[in-house]
């Protein structure tokens, strides 16, 4: 079964850091662009970062670049999202998908990130 599973979310204080994981099963994430997205209640889905297939080039909207970093461990079939200096506005459910633009049926179930003191 082809699927992605996110983990690593939780409650963090403003200024803190989290690293989210996105583990692939049934396929190699190396062969796909893997995108990270988030969605807060009442807001549209927002793209955070993407790591392309094979070469692993990174693409990220400029506002995300300073605090969010995507990386990949091929041996673990896992893509990571490192999030630093978190602010309350980062509170959302974070998803990974098997496509940099989200044009795929293969999405993870999401992991909740809450930034609050």
Write the layout of secondary structure elements.
Elements: E1 3-7, E2 10-12, E3 18-25, E4 34-39, E5 46-51, E6 58-59, H1 62-65, E7 68-73, E8 78-83, E9 92-97, E10 111-115
Parallel strand pairs: 2-10
Antiparallel strand pairs: 1-3, 3-8, 4-5, 4-9, 5-6, 7-8, 9-10
The rounded distance between the terminal residues' Cα atoms is 39 Å
Class from helix and strand fractions: mainly beta
**C-alpha geometry:** globular
Number of strands: 10
**What topology, given as strand order, has the largest sheet?**
2-10-9-4-5-6
What does the radius of gyration come to? 13 Å
Largest sheet: 6 strands, mixed
Order of helices and strands: EEEEEEHEEEE
Strand content: over 45%
Tally of individual helices: 1
Unreliable runs: none
What fraction, in percent, of the residue positions are helical?
under 10%
Average pLDDT reading? 95
What would you note in describing this structure?
- The structure is a single chain.
- With 117 residues, this protein is mainly beta.
- Strand 7 and strand 8 form a beta hairpin.
- The protein has one helix and ten strands; from the N terminus they run ββββββαββββ.
- The radius of gyration is 13 Å and the shape is globular.
- The strands form two sheets. Strands 2-10-9-4-5-6 form a six-stranded mixed β-sheet, with no helix packed on it.
- The mean pLDDT is 95.
- 29% of the residues are buried.
- Helix content is 3%, strand content 45%.
